[in-house]
Design brief:
Layout: E1 14-25, E2 30-34, E3 39-46, E4 49-53, E5 56-60, E6 64-68, E7 74-78, E8 84-93, E9 103-105, H1 108-124, E10 125-127, E11 132-135, H2 140-160, H3 174-188, H4 196-202, H5 207-217, H6 222-239, H7 244-250, H8 256-267, H9 271-279
Antiparallel strand pairs: 1-8, 2-7, 3-6, 3-8, 4-5, 4-7, 6-9, 10-11
Length: 280
């Protein structure tokens, strides 16, 4: 008898773990922000958190989750007067995974499953309560099993529980509204060479207040954040077929070499390497 084989798809296969932990964040907690070359899934177990992801702001409540793409700048803070419990698992896949979904809402009976996965990872891997270091000796099977469980959980979440939940202007704090407005202005004017004073004037606030807002919600200076936005826009331009020189000029950089230096500083690779990877 001749059997017909059918290839099994592999939409999401985790090859590396970086962190896996749960934590209680106090009512005044703020994490300034970061950008890294691996995926990060953030789950809200209790309470409310605010998230700034690239140029969007989200309000996440119990059962909500957000999936951060590699090299996506993100910061997080607690919303309201109550503490929040969150779980975070960061990982790398064997190939780029494509999804437009970013925000998810888990049903009540699946929220504790996240904590169980974190506990299983901690049992199978050497860790310091946060970072994953190595596999515990003799627990190779358990280490693979808990990762497979997390893969299945993610695929199920992406397939079934998509939900866009932006923080509306009505439920943002005043400072969050001002920061969101400033970020929107920068995004709309990313091709211009603007000073901090220019930005403050256009956003109708003082220079000192503008700097405080960016320190509070992004953990970096206004110009540094603006430069990061330019670099990310430059990456989009390169992928659309625009040359490195055109990108530099279009984004207000004085020359191609300086653009390439700044681009590598933020993304870890040069514009030329981006173009080569696109050809591959």
């Amino acid at each position: 008898m001749n059997y017909i084989k059918c290839k099994v798809p592999s939409a999401l296969s985790i090859k590396e773990l970086y962190t896996a932990f749960s934590a209680i964040r106090k009512a005044n907690f703020r994490f300034a922000g970061e950008m890294h070359n691996f995926w990060e899934a953030v789950f809200v177990i209790e309470g409310k958190i605010g998230v700034c992801s690239e140029n969007d702001m989200f309000l996440l409540e119990r059962g909500d989750a957000i999936l951060h793409n590699p090299m996506e700048f993100h910061s997080i803070w607690t919303e309201g007067t109550a503490d929040a419990t969150i779980a975070i698992i960061s990982f790398q896949t064997n190939k780029p995974y494509q999804t437009n979904a970013r925000i998810f809402s888990l049903p009540e009976d699946r929220i504790d499953e996240v904590l169980n996965i974190v506990n299983d990872i901690h049992a199978a891997y050497v860790n310091n309560g946060c970072e994953i270091k190595d596999i515990n000796p003799g627990m190779e099977l358990e280490a693979e099993l808990c990762v497979k469980q997390f893969e299945a959980f993610l695929l199920n979440m992406i397939h079934k529980y998509r939900k866009q939940k932006l923080i509306t202007k009505e439920n943002r704090t005043k400072s969050a509204r001002m920061f969101a407005d400033a970020v929107y202005f920068l995004d709309e004017n990313v091709e211009y060479d603007l000073s901090v004073d220019d930005i403050a004037e256009k956003c109708s606030m003082s220079r000192s207040n503008l700097k405080k807002l960016f320190a509070k919600y992004s953990g970096m200076g206004v110009k540094q954040y603006f430069t990061m936005m330019k670099v990310r826009r430059g990456e989009e331009y390169l992928k659309s077929g625009i040359s490195v020189k055109e990108c530099a000029l279009k984004l207000g950089f004085c020359d191609q070499n300086y653009f390439s230096t700044v681009y590598k500083k933020y993304l870890g690779h040069t514009p030329s390497q981006t173009l080569r990877s696109l050809k591959k």
